[in-house]
Amino acid sequence: MKSICVFCGSNAGHxxxxxxxxxxxGRLLAARGIELVYGAGNIGLMGAVADACLGAxxxxxxxxxxxxxxxxxxxxxxxxRALTRIEVVDSMHTRKARMAELSDGFIALPGxxxxxxxxxxxxxxxxxxxxxxxxxxxxxxGFYDPLxxxxxxxxxxxxxxxxxxxxxxxxxEIEDLLAQMAAYQPEPVDKWLKEEKQL
Length: 199
Ligand code: AMP
What we know:
By secondary structure, this protein is of the alpha/beta class. The chain has helices at residues 16-31, 44-55, 72-79, 92-102, 113-127, 145-156, 162-165, 174-183; strands at 3-7, 35-38, 60-65, 85-89, 105-108, 135-138, 168-171.
């Protein structure tokens, strides 16, 4: 993997472990020569992962929608001159598409709606066969346990195939998650479950 897109909170969370892990991830990407692609924000875990990656000599690309440019957060992101590259795009949709195009894999650190949405959308594109790239949850502090339980519930209730559920890689350890991602071989299956299997 030459580049990884990181989805993460525009807040830093209450537990200091979240920020520490974001910084650790940024440094590790830099050390491995993997470019960081992200939403260009300079706040919360987004700022933490980008600053740590840049600080360790890594390459960082930020993708920001024009509509966010005037806002304080985007302004700070754009003033974040050390970013290796900033792309200004026309919409949130284009941003996600560009982040997906530019990246060889995706990691979600803890976050809120934006992070959940981005990760679930990229999973959705994966299960539809639009891409074959690895996607992993960095389960710091068990943050993603409830989401993983939700995925399992969707399998149990016949809304999600186990093979597609397995696309969501997960670890509480960065190195382990990167190793899982490097070894990832998607199992192409139809998204849709057969009628007769439904209860
Ligand atoms: P959230 O988890 O709700 O804080 O949203 C964070 C995710 O949504 C990030 O991965 C970004 O791509 C995007 N996002 C949300 N808010 C911002 C912001 N103020 N600036 C840049 N990106 C944001």
